[in-house]
Amino acid sequence: MGYSLLSILRVCHSALVAKEEDIHYHTDMDIYSLLDLAKSLIPESEFEFLDKLKKEIEKRKSKINSRKISKKLKILEKLLDRQDF
């Protein structure tokens, strides 16, 4: 199923790029139908899982960025403490 989805998405991508260059091999309905087919091949539970995964990744990135900023601030504070202004 994964390769079929990838093929469908590549065809749609190519069709949209061709359309931008004013080359019309496919109609908008062809592209819509392929995208609708690709969507139907993905179970609803996968969308829910991917959404949860995305939120978890964003949460972890936020924590990592907070730690990095905190470390940089501590380094900056130490540098400022050493300076005589």
Describe this entry's structure for a reader:
Helices cover 85% and strands 0% of the residues. Helix 1 (2-20) runs antiparallel to helix 2 (28-41). It starts with a helix and ends with a helix. It is elongated and about 70 Å long. It has 85 residues and is mostly helical. The longest helix is centred in the C-terminal third of the chain and has 39 residues, at 44-82.
Helix content: over 70%
The biggest sheet, with number of strands, parallel, antiparallel or mixed sense and barrel status, is: none
Structural class: mainly alpha
What is the count of β-strands?
Answer: 0
> Overall mean pLDDT score?
84
Order of helices and strands: HHH
What is the percentage of strand-forming residues?
Answer: under 5%
> Radius of gyration over alpha carbons?
24 Å
Q: Any key phrases for this structure?
A:
mainly alpha; elongated; 85 residues
Outline of this structure?
By secondary structure, the chain is mainly alpha-helical.
